[in-house]
Design brief:
three-stranded antiparallel β-sheet, 3 strands, mainly alpha, 69% helix, Arc Repressor Mutant, subunit A
Length: 178
């Protein structure tokens, strides 16, 4: 299989996973109180916090009103906090709270459990280890592309956070016990 066919297969799988998630929601089998946007926001902050609110909005693709609604919802749920650094009180930084980290980790584990059926055909540890190695390589490539895209509007300290996110995600995938 050539790389174009592989990329098409990955794209098709991503679409099917999104459709499956919507089907789960419509059937009421997904128990999260978070929207997909809210979950992605928590993931973003888990890997890049503290993060300036304006950069957070750019990453999320939100305009001012939608950004404030999202920040206010997550703040009211005590998942994120708004911090003003003493060095520059004009800045508004966002970061996950302990409650937000706990909730996000719980959602990751519950979400991963819903998808274990996808790997029923992997019959032994060698298959699983090989597949994890491939996923880690794909993840590294995604992280690299994210760095390039983010360089246009993200300060260097946030780019460093993306580097550390890669090791965080690797630890998540290899450390999860279902």
């Amino acid at each position: 299989m050539d790389l174009d066919a592989l990329a098409l297969k990955v794209f098709t799988l991503m679409v099917k996973v999104r459709l499956f998630r919507r089907l789960e929601r419509s059937r009421g089998s997904e128990q999260s109180d978070l929207s997909e946007r809210e979950f992605l926001a928590l993931e973003l902050l888990s890997q890049n916090a503290p993060m300036r609110e304006c950069y957070f909005g750019k990453w999320m693709g939100l305009q001012s009103t939608s950004l404030q609604e999202l920040v206010n919802r997550l703040s009211a749920a005590r998942f994120i906090s708004k911090v003003r650094p003493k060095s520059d009180r004009r800045l508004r930084l966002l970061e996950l709270t302990d409650e937000g980290r706990r909730f996000l980790n719980e959602q990751r584990i519950n979400g991963a459990r819903r998808y274990t059926f996808l790997f029923d055909g992997l019959s032994n540890q060698i298959d699983i280890d090989s597949f994890i190695a491939v996923l880690e390589l794909v993840e590294e490539n995604i992280t690299s592309e994210m760095q390039e895209c983010a360089a246009d509007y993200t300060p260097a300290e946030s780019l460093h956070a993306i580097d550390t996110a890669e090791s965080t995600l690797k630890g998540f995938w290899t450390g999860i016990r279902l």
